[in-house]
């Protein structure tokens, strides 16, 4: 193999002085996508990418597409006898929103019917408390700039919208379906230039009125990067509002009694403020306030109190913290009018080392009295009950070889039954999953899921995947790309690194801010474990990650290029000195730190992948995949890093850049996902020796 003829990229002599440290940035000109030089360079990269040799691409494409023909089904949201859920049939590009009553069901919203190009996605939906109206949010081309609409459920008629600037907005309906609280950014003309993605506020909107008449309820004068949550109890009496600075693992929290103050001027009472904990509230049908918190309980606990006394000195533990399992959700099953009925139970969802469990408890004292039967050792989604109460709960289930299904548990019989499976029948390859334990650099025990064909042994081409950030857990789940790889003879490993939530909030914090290097050390140790146990060898090992996981593999290839033969780095953060200036970067300094603060600059400077590329090093074969409409992580990170690696690479392993238009960081059409996965798998196969 010979070194590729990389497009020329000028190196400017730009060096910033930050806290006494010279910080070079030779490719800063690539931060401007409208610069003709940038466009010319990107066009040349596209030519290089299209000419790349990707053996087995068509086979991977066909197999991934076939596995995704399983379709999908979502957990229902109930409003009386109406149920709202999503389903995607084998030939559909996007999930479709349905409403069902009894045996009848009909389409409420089909994104492809709205836009035959396939570029429109359904971001979220929320039926009102009676199930007569439904708010939904859509975005186009991957920009995630949600526009909010309201439809009449009976007729399908749009009765409101579009309301723009509603990205990441919850919708909290008041009883009657005539008004709701929601979150909206201020207009661009009302904020400083460059801050258009921030400055959210909570508003009250009355259906049929102009948004100019919306009443601002909350957020004025608070942190510009705040995200807000808002909910209203089923009876309409209680309003709760939460505020988090960016993605910080803590929130402030307030409640208001809407029976004692106007809905457009609620008198908010502080539940917690400036407390280093995450807390959520649920107003029970029994009149109690249920508090889900990690305050003094990094693995989570459920407490109870009265809504009239919501502050922590009044909390009583109902489900205390477990020494090993992480509490993830709960549901209340009370199908009798009598509050203290003996058949009332509390279901509690847990993950034990990322494997789901659901236990049954008494309502009064939280005593464990049973366990919900589950389909296997996998992942259970949120526990969904009927808002009016009942003896049933619905939840999703998936594992490494099972597409997501929806199940129903009946507390009167103690049985779990399949409620709905995905509509497409596909042949899933047989695969064996093992959870292994290894030690990281500092001796910490870390777990990893290793998926392979039953009976295979000896060193095999292997993909190591990781994320390690924001408290997000890498739980077992169906992956068409992973199964296509395993079926072809490879091994797929998922490391459950610090920075994630697999072992609770402390596990997250052990991999953030000053401790971010722990995440990379955990990842290197996972690779070394796979090598020392004979699963693979360095010349057969690839790493893959996206977003924060793109940062992970960027650090992996710069810190330990000797360990990896290939890297797929998708929608990554890589310039950690300037990341706050682009996309939603300013909301993540609570996870990474800020280069504006001397101590935190030191953390970032210690690992920022872009700044650790060195000339004369033989780097792994690397493919960057980025998306032109990504408004979370700007593609400039990958552009600058690709230019730096192409300049520095001493070997002949290729450095490729795959740019894709009209998609973003989140949901996309199935066919676009298939093409992306096929390119990634074929690239890895070609550089790890997998014979497809």
Mean pLDDT: 96
Q: What is the general shape? A: globular
Please mark out the parts with pLDDT under 50 across 5 or more consecutive residues, or reply none.
none
- Main-sheet strand order equals 33-34-36-35-37-38-39-40
Major sheet size, sense and barrel closure = 8 strands, mixed
Distance between the termini: 20 Å
Share of helix among residues? 10-25%
Number of strands: 40
Radius of gyration: 25 Å
Number of helices: 11
- The percentage of residues in β strands lies in 25-35%
Structural class by SSE content: alpha+beta
What does this structure look like?
The protein is an alpha+beta fold and 692 residues long. Helices cover 17% and strands 33% of the residues. The strands form 9 sheets. An 8-stranded mixed β-sheet has the order 33-34-36-35-37-38-39-40, sandwiched between helices. Strands 3, 4, 5, 6 and 7 form a 5-stranded antiparallel β-sheet that branches. Strand 37 (541-546), helix 7 (548-559) and strand 38 (566-570) form a beta-alpha-beta unit. Helix 2 crosses helix 4, helix 2 crosses helix 11 and helix 6 crosses helix 7 (548-559). It is globular. InterPro entries: AB_hydrolase_fold, Pept_S9_AS, Pept_S9A_N, Peptidase_S9_cat, Peptidase_S9A, Prolyl_oligopep/macrocyclase. It comes from Sphaerimonospora cavernae. It catalyses: Hydrolysis of Pro-|-Xaa >> Ala-|-Xaa in oligopeptides. Residues 9-19 have a biased composition (Basic and acidic residues).
């Amino acid at each position: 193999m010979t070194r590729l003829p990389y497009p020329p990229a000028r190196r400017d002599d730009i060096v910033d002085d930050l806290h006494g440290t010279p910080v070079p940035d030779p490719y800063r000109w690539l931060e401007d996508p409208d610069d003709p030089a940038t466009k010319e360079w990107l066009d040349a990269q596209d030519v290089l990418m299209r000419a790349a040799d990707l053996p087995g691409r068509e086979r991977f494409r066909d197999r991934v597409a076939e596995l995704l023909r399983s379709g999908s089904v979502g957990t229902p949201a109930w409003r009386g006898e109406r149920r709202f859920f999503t389903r995607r049939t084998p030939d559909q590009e996007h999930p479709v929103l349905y409403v069902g009553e009894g045996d009848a069901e009909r389409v409420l919203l089909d994104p492809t019917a709205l836009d035959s190009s396939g570029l429109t996605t359904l971001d979220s939906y929320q039926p009102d408390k009676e199930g007569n109206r439904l708010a939904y949010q859509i975005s186009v081309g991957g920009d995630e700039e949600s526009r909010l609409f309201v439809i009449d459920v009976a007729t399908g008629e749009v009765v409101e919208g579009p309301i723009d600037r509603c990205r990441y907005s919850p919708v909290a309906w008041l009883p009657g379906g005539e008004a709701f609280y929601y979150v909206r950014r201020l207009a661009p003309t009302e904020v400083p230039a460059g801050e258009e993605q921030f400055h959210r506020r909570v508003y009250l909107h009355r259906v049929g009125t102009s948004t100019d008449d919306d009443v601002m309820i909350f957020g004025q004068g608070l942190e510009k990067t705040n995200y807000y949550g808002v909910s209203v109890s089923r009876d309409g009496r209680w309003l709760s509002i939460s505020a988090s600075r960016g993605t910080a693992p803590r929130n402030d929290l307030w409640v208001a009694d809407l029976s004692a103050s106007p809905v457009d001027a609620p008198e908010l009472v502080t539940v917690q403020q400036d407390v280093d904990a995450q807390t959520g509230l649920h107003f029970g049908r029994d009149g109690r306030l249920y508090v889900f918190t990690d305050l003094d309980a990094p693995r989570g606990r459920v407490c109870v109190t009265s809504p009239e006394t919501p502050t922590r000195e009044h909390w009583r533990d109902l489900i205390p913290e477990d020494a090993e399992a992480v509490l993830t959700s709960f549901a209340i099953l009370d199908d009798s009018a009598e509050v203290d009925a003996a058949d009332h139970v509390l279901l509690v969802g847990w993950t034990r080392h990322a494997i789901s469990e659901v236990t049954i408890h008494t309502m009064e004292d939280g005593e464990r009295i049973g366990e919900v039967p589950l389909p296997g050792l996998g992942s259970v989604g949120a526990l969904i009950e009927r808002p009016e109460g009942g003896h049933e709960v619905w939840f999703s289930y998936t594992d490494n070889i099972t597409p997501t299904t929806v199940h129903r548990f009946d507390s009167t019989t103690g049985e779990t039954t399949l409620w709905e499976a995905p509509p497409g029948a596909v042949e899933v390859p047989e695969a064996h999953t093992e959870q292994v334990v290894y030690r990281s650099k500092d001796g910490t025990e870390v777990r990893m899921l290793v998926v392979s064909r039953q009976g295979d042994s000896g060193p095999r081409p292997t993909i190591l995947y990781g994320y390690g950030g924001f408290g997000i857990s890498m739980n077992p789940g169906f992956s068409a790309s992973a199964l296509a790889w395993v079926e072809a003879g490879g091994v797929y490993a998922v490391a459950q690194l610090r920075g994630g939530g697999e072992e609770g909030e402390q596990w997250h914090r052990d991999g953030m801010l000053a401790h971010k290097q722990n995440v990379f050390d955990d990842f290197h140790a996972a690779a070394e474990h796979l090598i020392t146990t004979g699963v693979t060898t360095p010349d057969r090992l690839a790493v893959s990650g996206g977003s924060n996981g793109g940062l992970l593999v960027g650090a992996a290839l710069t810190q330990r290029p000797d360990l990896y033969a290939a890297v797929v780095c998708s929608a990554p953060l890589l310039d950690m000195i300037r990341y706050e200036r682009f996309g939603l970067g300013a909301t993540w300094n609570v996870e990474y730190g800020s280069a504006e603060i001397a101590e935190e600059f030191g953390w970032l400077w210690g690992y920022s992948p872009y700044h650790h590329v060195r000339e004369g090093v033989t780097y792994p074969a690397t493919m960057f995949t980025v998306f032109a409409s990504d408004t979370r992580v700007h593609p400039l990170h990958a552009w600058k890093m690709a230019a730096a690696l192409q300049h520095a690479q001493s070997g002949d392993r290729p450095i490729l850049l795959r740019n894709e238009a009209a998609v973003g960081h989140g949901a996309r059409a199935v066919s676009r996902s298939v093409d992306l996965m096929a390119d990634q798998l074929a690239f890895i196969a070609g550089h790890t020796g997998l014979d497809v």
